[in-house]
Amino acid sequence: MRALKLGLGIAMCSALPAHALVQAIVTPTTLTTFEGGTTVQYAVTLDDSPSVGETVTVTPSSTDVTEGTVSAALTFTAADFDVPKYVTVTPGASGDGNDGDVSYTVTNIVTATGGTASYNGASANSVSVTNQNVDGVATLTVSPSSGFRVIEGGAAQTITVSAGPDVTPTNDVTVNLSTVSGEVALSAASVTLTAGNGYSATFTITANDDAAVDGDLSFTVVTAAADSVDPAFDGFDPVDVVGIAEDDDTLPPPPVNAQSIPALGGLGLAALGLLLGGLGVTRLRK
C-alpha cells in the first residue's frame, strides 16, 4: 500500500505542468501615485533559473491607461533571472476634473520561448495602483510615496511633500514624520510647508548600513495628519511612505573542511569488498 501511495504521488507530481512549479516575483504589489506626479517602480525577478536557451518575458499591462501607463516588457534568461528588473508606472495627468482617487491594476503576463519553456504561463502577482486626484481640492502630495529602494551604505532617497496644486494654503502646514523600522533613518521629524518654500518641503530616507544578513526589507514612514490653522488643510492625512531597504551584506563562504576521509582498516575493506562483490564489482584496490 505504501508503495502504491508513493507511486501515485510521483505520478501526480510528474503530471503537474512545468509552469506550476515556477513563478515571477513582483515587489511591491501596492503603489500610490498622484495626477501629474513622478513615476514609481516595482521590481521583477524569477524564483528559479530558466532552462538552457530559454527566454522568459514578463509583460505588464495597465487596466486604465488614463490613470497610469507602464513601461515595456522585461526579459530574463538563466544568466540574469535573479537580478531585479523594473517596471515604471507613469501616473495620468491632472486636468480631467475632480474624479476622486482612482484605483486600477497592472497585470504581469509571463511567457517563455526556447529551452523547455518551463516559465510559459507561470504566475506573477498583479500590482494595485491608486492614482490620487489633485484637481479642485485641497490636498497634500507625497512624492515618491512608494515604488523605490534605498541601499545600505548608498544614497538617500529624497521625499517631497507639497500642497496643491489647485488650492494653496493660507497658513503654514506641518506634517510630523515617524518610523518604527530599524532599517532606515529620517533626516527630520517633521516638514513645514510655508509661503517661503512655496508650500513644498523635503526630507530624506537613508538605509542603515548594518552588518546583518537580513535580506531586502519593507519599511513604512508614517506621515501624520497635518497641523494648520487653515481649515482646508488642518487634519488632512497624507499618504504614508512605503519603500524597500536593500541589504548589502552577504553570508561568508562555508569553511573548507581540510580533514580528509579516514582510511579504511582491514575489516572495513573486507566489508566494503563484500558489498561491492554483491553489486558485481570483484576487485578492490587498497
Structural key phrases:
286 residues; mainly beta; Immunoglobulin-like; 5-stranded mixed sheet; 2 helices; 9% helix
Low-confidence stretches: 8-16
Work out the strand percent: 35-45%
For the secondary structure, the number of strands is 19
Rg over CA atoms: 28 Å
Helix content: under 10%
* Average pLDDT, all residues: 87
Q: Largest beta sheet, briefly?
A: 5 strands, mixed
Give a quick rundown of the structure.
The protein is mainly beta.
Characterise this structure:
By secondary structure, the protein is mainly β. Residues 8-16 have low confidence and may be disordered. It folds into two domains: 16-135, Immunoglobulin-like; 138-250, Sandwich (Immunoglobulin-like), CATH 2.60.40.3450. The chain contains two helices and 19 strands. Strands 5-7-3-1-9 form a five-stranded mixed beta sheet, with no helix packed on it. Strands 2-10-8-4-6 form a five-stranded mixed beta sheet, with no helix packed on it. Strands 12-19-18-14-16 form a five-stranded mixed beta sheet, with no helix packed on it. 26% of the residues are buried.
